[in-house]
Amino acid sequence: MQTRLLGTFEIDHQKLSQDLDVISHFDFDEPYIEFSCGYPWKSAMVWTSGGVLGDGVLSRYDNRQPCLPTANGRKLAYVREIIQNFFVVEHLLFARVVVMSNNVLVPHRDFLELEDKSKDEKVAHRLQVPLATSEDALFMEENVIYRMRVGEVWSLDATRLHSAAALTDHKRVHLILDFADTGKETRLVKFGEDRSAGIPDTNLAKRPALSAGDRDAILGMSKVIDMDNFKDILGIIIKKHYRNDAGEGFVWETMREISRLSGDPEIEAHANNLYEHYVLSRTD
Amino acid sequence: MQTRLLGTFEIDHQKLSQDLDVISHFDFDEPYIEFSCGYPWKSAMVWTSGGVLGDGVLSRYDNRQPCLPTANGRKLAYVREIIQNFFVVEHLLFARVVVMSNNVLVPHRDFLELEDKSKDEKVAHRLQVPLATSEDALFMEENVIYRMRVGEVWSLDATRLHSAAALTDHKRVHLILDFADTGKETRLVKFGEDRSAGIPDTNLAKRPALSAGDRDAILGMSKVIDMDNFKDILGIIIKKHYRNDAGEGFVWETMREISRLSGDPEIEAHANNLYEHYVLSRTD
Q1: Average pLDDT rounded to a whole number, residues B212-239
Q2: Rounded distance, CA B58 to CA B113, Å?
Q3: pLDDT digits (tens, 9 = 90+) for B68-92
Q4: Distances A11 to A86, A132, A196 between C-alpha atoms, Å
Q5: Is B102's Cβ below 8 Å from some Cβ in A?
Q6: Contact predicate A51/A73, CB 8 Å
Q7: Contact B217 A223 (CB under 8 A)
Q8: What is the mean pLDDT of each run of 10 residues along chain A (284 residues)?
Q9: Which of A204, B7, B121, B255 could lock onto B117 through a cystine, CB 3.0 to 4.6 A?
Q10: B223 and A229: CB-CB below 8 Å?
């Protein structure tokens, strides 16, 4: 499994616009808030096991019932049409509408927290369907920065280090579909899959290299960091990674180096604990 | 009018706890989002002219109807009891429940945006009634940092440069009451007012002076600032002001100096425009 553009489908912009208007009035949850550096990442469950709305934390759902639209999902005619026409609902575990603006997510790996479930109930495939986006809505996988566009369907390898960014007030809205493990050959989509591997060149965000001077200035924040602004400084480093190529591992290496240089054992321990939590223990 | 502790009343903690539980399930608005550096400041209107819920932006309400509980307010038995027992509802324009966590507000002055309304419809007195708070929930007025505690009622001079901070995950919940201009002698509260002037010593947050080295390190962020992280850096400076005494005017002077030192005309202009908006044009 690798992150790749699965394919494209034709969007009905009028129907989409009606659903986006309904979505803008949703009462969102703010689960996984510890991942956000900026405005909280918001989520509304639209299909779940038994149609239960819940609180948006995936590990709290009982996945043994058939996947059905929630109270939110029943209000979204076009999203329902997209799900039923283009995806194999039989293997669907969750569908969520997620909204981001002025926010970057801490680079992390996923799926470990669901490991105590059986194969049929465990999220094995995560697909993303952008519903509203902009040029400042970006994704990161290791040292690759890319854009997903409306009309595209993406498959993500969430076990690799990844993050998302909305460096703008504009609300980026994605439909995220989580599927159970179906065995290698089972298809999850009902449209012609793009057989090209990986992330197309036209989706890549080209970045200039980070200069040595910029790197030193960023490390200089070791003299400013404290427990009150720790998350702000982590957010600044993540944003720099989205705009400048500073090599794989830049975010966590820089955050840990700043924390070490601060000379404050509490800050250094906090950085190492977060690194352990987001990067090391979340994968197998 | 000066910012001062108006008085105290005895809290019924059991009734308060029931209301706080109801409040935790409110569908909040996020008005004035441009003031937040961190998680958005959230507000739920509980009394308004005619009981209209609206969107939380005060200038959009028609204040000519009597002030009544909204759909939110009708769910809060104890807040209603507090308002009716301790305040002169006749002069009330708005009551709001506001929630903050992991956030600092940009230092600003208030009330200019309502100036086209007549005297009876215009907010002239802003009272704050803390419902849930912590030692890391702080307030700023010019170069004074202080705490408001549950059971206290405060009158704020919102025309002076002020800000609020919740340097914690803990949700700080306040009831804010806005009253019309009643003439000097009219009382707004129905309890014995504390006649001592200003902010009591026991409410002040003592801060060590900011060292010259810390000041230089903060100015060093001029080499890191860009349009993506502008608000993050503003937030870091505001937090430093809450924890260290660096003199009156520190926040805006430092933000404008960092922006000037960045050498980027877009950043410098942005800082000056924000200063104009938050500090100069919001007062008369």
Answers
A1: 98
A2: 9
A3: 999 999 999 999 999 999 999 999 9
A4: 12, 11, 22
A5: yes
A6: yes
A7: yes
A8: 90 98 96 96 97 94 93 98 95 97 95 61 88 98 97 92 97 96 76 80 97 97 98 98 96 98 98 95 54
A9: B121
A10: no
pLDDT at B283 over 80: no
Average pLDDT, chain B: 93
Asked if the domains at A4-203 and A212-280 fall in one CATH topology, the answer is: no
> Cβ A232–B232 below 8 Å, yes or no?
yes
Does residue B239 sit at the A interface (CB-CB below 8 Å)? Answer: yes
Residue of A nearest to B213 (CA): A223
Q: Which residues contact A118 (CB under 8 A, 6 or more apart)?
A: none
Cβ(B17)–Cβ(B27) under 8 Å? no
Interface of A with B in 242-271 (CB under 8 A): 242-243
Instruction: For chain B, give every domain's residue range.
Output: 4-203, 212-280
Gap between the Cα atoms of A101 and B206, Å rounded: 36
CA atoms of A56 and B227, how far apart (whole Å)? 32
Neighbour order of strands in the sheet with B172-180: B4-8, B152-156, B123-132, B172-180, B92-100, B42-49, B67-69
Burial (CB count within 10 angstroms: exposed 0-12, middle 13-18, buried 19+), residue B209: exposed
Residue B91: CB atoms within 10 A of its CB come to 20
Q: A119-132 as b/e, with b when 16 or more CB fall inside 10 Å?
A: eebbbbbbbbbbbb
Q: How far apart are CA A78 and CA B42, in angstroms?
A: 31
Yes or no, beta carbons of B224 and A236 under 8 Å apart: yes
Which of the 8 DSSP states describes residue A29? B
Are the beta carbons of A217 and B224 separated by less than 8 Å? yes
What is the model's pLDDT at position A281? 77
Say yes or no: B235 contacts chain A, CB-CB below 8 A: yes
For domain A212-280, give its CATH number from 3.10.450.50, 3.30.2000.10, 3.10.290.10, 1.10.1720.10. Answer: 1.10.1720.10
From chain A, the residues in CB contact with B218 under 8 A are: 224
- Please compute the mean of the pLDDT values over residues B182-208 and round it to a whole number: 84
Give the CA distances from residue B146 to residues A12, B109, B138, in Å, rounded to whole numbers and listed in that order.
54, 17, 6
- pLDDT surpassing 90 at residue B41: yes
Q: What is the pLDDT of residue B136?
A: 98
> Under CATH, which number does the domain B4-203 receive?
2.60.120.330
- The reply to whether residue A224 touches residue B235, judged by beta carbons under 8 angstroms, is no
Q: What whole-number distance in Å separates Cα of residue B97 and Cα of residue B24?
A: 11
